[in-house]
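Retro notes, item 3 of 5
We never archived the inputs for the NDP complex last cycle. Fixing that now. Sequence and ligand:
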Amino acid sequence: MSLNAQPAASLFIDGRPVEGEGALLPVHYPYTGEEIASLRQASAAQVAAACRAAARAQPAWAALAPVERARVLSRAAALIRERNEELSRLETLDTGKPIQETLVADWESGAQALEFFAGLGPTVTGQMIPLGRDWAYTRREALGVCAGIGAWNYPSQIACWKAAPALIMGNAMVFKPSEETPLGALKLAGILAEAGLPAGIFSVVQGRAEVGAALVADPHVAKVSLTGSVPTGRRVYAAAAEGMRHVTMELGGKSPLIVFEDAELEDAVGAAILANFYSSGQICSNGTRVFLQDRIRQPFLDRLTERLRQIRIGDPLDPDTQLGPIVSPAQAAQIRQAIAAGQAAGARLVCGGAGEGAFVPPTVFADATDDMAITRDEIFGPVMTTLAFEDEEEAIRRANATGFGLAAGVFTRDLARAHRVVARLEAGTCWINAYNLTPVEMPFGGTKLSGIGRENSAAAIEHYSQLKSVYVGMGAVEAPY
Ligand code: NDP
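Structure as it came back at the time:
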């Protein structure tokens, strides 16, 4: 079986594949470390060319009737569905995530975003505002050229989640994937072109932070949408402010999952597993601080470890594999450091540990305290920290005692309590008796350090458009002098 995933060219600019002029960018399969493609980064001139092409093509795209733009997105969604198997295999090679996940969670979610915004876009209208004799109306207009910058954990989903609302509203997008996972966005560019997207409307440039920074600073760029860590978010937000650009920031988290003692045990354990170990724990919204009310603590830990013993770890291309490798040796080393720090600080390792090579097993800590690094810092790996609590008030206070505010979950059979607690949790996305479900119909995004703006749902439309007010005079103009 060939693991060669070399694309036609490293970049996609102005409607065609183009070779990069910058430094080499090798792509490794996280499971074996094998090089599966060798790309070249974009030069500064190529980033500028992609933005120029976008600015040139965007007005005609924005002038189309929304249903015409929608047709392109719908066709692209259909092409993704037809090719889901091949695309998912590539996603697995790029990220190391198990094929049983990529087949259902990555391109599938991207296709749903394209379908959803294809349906929603043509329904977007302005307001008519009566003013007596005169009147006013509003137009929701494109921003122009948007820069998209992605993280490595859901590379193709992130590209689609950003492209779909941007394009339906008549914008063009220049997208830079993470250097770790550059392949999926190129596929998306090819599929959109095949679906009839005009040249220049969706381009892909590759490279590390300098390329992202050049993109953010390009004078044609009106909006920057970043998915990444908080430190990167700070830098990109500051750079965007220089040009008063709009931003969407989808950043990291250390989200609380609160399990009250009346919770359905099996469901709470299942949700905690999804909230910590899916995609080897490399998910921004993960509920990595699991607060357990006293009476449920031991039964929860017993059942959790019993279920984790059954997990199948290994070759991500084997359809039976449930937990794959970590995306890169550097990321695996960081996770191991965090685990070692947890042990050194006195937290009790209930299961898991450092693992070997590319693999870190599902790791659970108990008897942790709020001041430990494993409780405070985002680890972005399969590491769950469990914390004991006594009552509701305490759980809310400690859950909110973090700079992050991306997500939160509550498990209880008491619905009044569930809603009462959720109302007080400082998080952009909350789940009651569920975790990590992000349907395209629901807004997704963070508060506090976890970000600005929302992806998915009708809320995303506002973040990829601007409002123009038009006052219409219907009679004589009366000037005072
Ligand atoms: P990083 O913040 O390291 O990178 C994100 C992207 O920004 C990458 O494409 C990176 O390029 C690029 N970049 C880095 N520096 C700059 C800069 N100065 N200017 C412009 N672009 C820049 O995140 P990771 O890729 O490591 O992803 C993990 C992080 O993403 C975690 O914190 C996670 O929580 C968060 N995340 C948030 C999600 C959300 O929706 N809220 C979803 C998924 C992840 P390169 O990688 O090539 O250096």
